[in-house]
Amino acid sequence: MSRQSVARAHQKIQELSWEPMYHQPVSHYGTDYTFRKAQKKDPLKQVLRSYFPMQEEKDNRVYGASDGAIRGNMFRQVQERWLEWQKLFLSIIPLPEISAARAMPLLFRNVPNPELHNGQAIQMIDEVRHSTIQQNLKRLYMNNYIDPAGFNSSLRNFQNDYCGTIGRQFAEGFITGDAITAASIYLTIVAETAFTNTLFVAMPAEAAANGDYLLPTVFHSVQSDESRHISNGYATLLMALADEGNHQLLERDLRYAWWNNHRVVDAAIGTFIEYGTKDRRKDRESYAEMWRRWIYDDYYRSYLVPLEKYGLVIPHDLIEESWNQIWHKGYVHEVAQFFATGWLANYWRIDPMTDKDFEWFEYKYPGWYDRYGKWWEQYNRLSTPNGHHPIVAEDVDYQYPHRCWVCMVPCLVREDMVMAEVDGQWRTYCHEACRWTDVEAFRPVYQGRNTPNMGQLIGAREWETLYHGWNWADVVTDMGFVRDDGKTMVAQPHLNLDDPKKLWTLDHLRRMPNLQSPNVLLNQMTDEERAKFHADYIRGGPAGRPYRAG
Amino acid sequence: MTTATERSVPKPVFTDAEAGAKEFPDSSARRFNYFTPQKRKQTHYEDVTVEVQPDPRHYLSQGWLYGFADGKGGYPLDWTVLKAWGSDRPEPERGPGTGGKGYDWPAHGWHEFRDPNEEWELSLYRYNANVVRQLQANVDAARQAKAFEQWNPNWVRFVQQNVGAWMHVDHGLGLYLFANANRRGPTNMHNTAIAVNSMHLIRAAQDLALYQLTLTEEIDGFDGSAHLETWNSDPAWQGVRETAERLTATSDWGEAIFAANVVFQPLVGELFRSHLVMQAAPRNGDFVTPTVVGAEEFDFSERDLRYTRAIFELLTNDRQFADHNSRILNGWLADWTGQAIAAARALQPLWSQPDLKPGRFEDALDRVKSRFAGIVEDLSLDLPKELER
Questions:
Q1: What is the pLDDT of residues B284-296, one digit of tens each?
Q2: Distance CA A55, CA A38 (A)
Q3: Which of A297, A411, B59, B174 is the most exposed place for a label (fewest CB within 10 A)?
Q4: B247: distance to nearest CA of chain A, Å?
Q5: Predicted ipTM of the assembly
Q6: Which chain B residues have a beta carbon less than 8 Å from that of A458?
Q7: Of the candidates A24, A135, A172, which has its C-beta nearest B73's C-beta?
Q8: Whole-number Cα distances in Å, B40 to B43, B99, B161, B286
């Protein structure tokens, strides 16, 4: 800025707001929270006169690096194992970003503080930046990486795929329901403040280790905007805490938002980092180590715990349980194994694990081989067509899991699965915390208190049910995950593109048994059958092993 | 003797994973294939915006997952009463064994909209960064040339009060109409264009506020807070203020955008900016204010109006709902034109405030009415009789 200091400029633009005299701005979005007017400051004091040139300079660096990557033949050194998982990640992430832009108006009428509205408007356009710069990165991958399949059909795939649906919660949770629950607690307090660390810092580091320096270039540029968003959330949270009537809702929303973010983000990013890398140096951090540093120490202990003295009830139990899931219950490994089981229903290729991978996993997660090693050996054995079915239809000591009604990740840690009959349907949940979210939190009454603005869980929440009774070839065709010869699948359980005979086609799928929805079957059971099924299910695992009596 | 330990770093590996290294199905399929481009070849803008916001009518097999308390999720088409072809078809019912397919792309006419400005992050930051840099250069040049010393006291008063008051319009509409509406539109193309419009206005408001700060530093006796009194209680401004507030109170996003960019900006905004401030300033020794106000004028006339026309031209020429849309838009025209003309007429006393007067108010009003009539005609709508009030 010229001679005017940023502080003075920021002070001056506070004169822009005014109290309506004739008409109140429209109020589209309700909340059960109450706010009193307060002079909470925007600590980052952003003014557009300096903001636009700053962002342009950041863009120049990003696009300069993009040109450099192409001219320097970066893709001759990129690991396909890594880039294939980006077909999933980069199909998901532009929607959460743009949804964060769309979420900002949910706060305008509910948080009576014009100074914060200015910061929220800048966050809105930041998020437009993030969404389109990420789409552009995907476009660059599509144009320059060896296998464009999956990138070229990205958004259709994402919108039809069960993995995309899991990821979509990390967008829809920002823009619907109670305005504060969505746009403040779920988006800024938990998703941005806690989980962007693994998304936009930890994962890009892994990309660089796999020969891809464009992902770090783009995502570190994105992350540099997040600090402003975090301060937006913090100021709103302090305003909410000032009213004791909000404390019960804050406790509810922090529990829901924490657990859902853990289920969704740790599933995806944990898998990308642990199973998408070729970097098996023993001293490189595992996802569990990163999580402990970025989320447990930096977020939970440094950010969240100090808020306790203001009356914030922190879900200590769920945070410890999340760590327990990652470290003791193999959550990330269970998810990666499931993604690989269902490779045929996706739109990227999943590389088998090798001895070197096994050694690294055993070193980082002692006991890994006993749990998961044999199954990954089977995956390797069944990866190219040779008269057998894809692994999901072969006997590899794996029970296809039930889907969690809430987070939509399957119920993979078998011992934790719970069931409830809701609205005449038996639903399965991956954990008691997800059951609570559906049965207690997302309801118009919470602990005896009316919560008329709370949102609803809607939609066809189990992908398998849509295709109950379908032949797998028809399923994949319906979703559109087929290459331009009309028969070769986009997804493959290996990276070999040299020999067409090693590529799976619709013809191979046609011979498979039909897809069966676990939830449809569950609802066809008698009460006794269902009780026995549940008792057996929770005795199954780890690694999806079915319970066998005796 | 010391032993150097090897640093632990990832090793570069030659993978030959670049495009064209092998041939296999899809190996040359290097374009996004899930939408039909507006023209023969898809544009960079389309690639980074189209279909990012899902629509259960074509893809989105599992539907929206989270809803408001009324059970509605996503971006309901009935958030405006305007309709595009196909929008009265129900969302596909999906349940056990139905599969996931919806209607073929684009499923309905809303998806045919493309922003003619092709705005995405690269374009919007380049454009706005250029604007703020140029404005700063203009103001710095004026400061160095002691240009503000040439302003006569009446003009100083005019700028501090009236140019100052306009920034409240920009700020209010930018935040509470346009930023608010970026959650309301049916496609990503609509909402992104609307978000960019919002930033134009918020930037223009801040441009004016910071310009005032400079004037406070440069001109003895410049009252940097005089705009507040003007905005709050000057009768000449209350018509503008009431209209601006009503715009922010409009629930239907289509009506809000239409009323702001088709009616209010041409009849009131351009009247004030182009036909009062920019005409009067040079005669009163001020060559700087027109460049600040002119930047905002360019935002509107060359960019925001352009995408607005594209939205509403599609609707008034819609193959199924043209009559429906025209009827509604003509109703909005009548309603908002009457209010905008009243607000414009209330501003008339401003024309006599500078020592050296701009052109006549009635001539200025005739010119904006003529421009407005051209916009209305381009949209195939009827010129409202309220224009003659």
A1: 999 999 999 999 9
A2: 30
A3: A297
A4: 8
A5: 0.97
A6: 63-67, 71, 73
A7: A172
A8: 9, 32, 51, 49
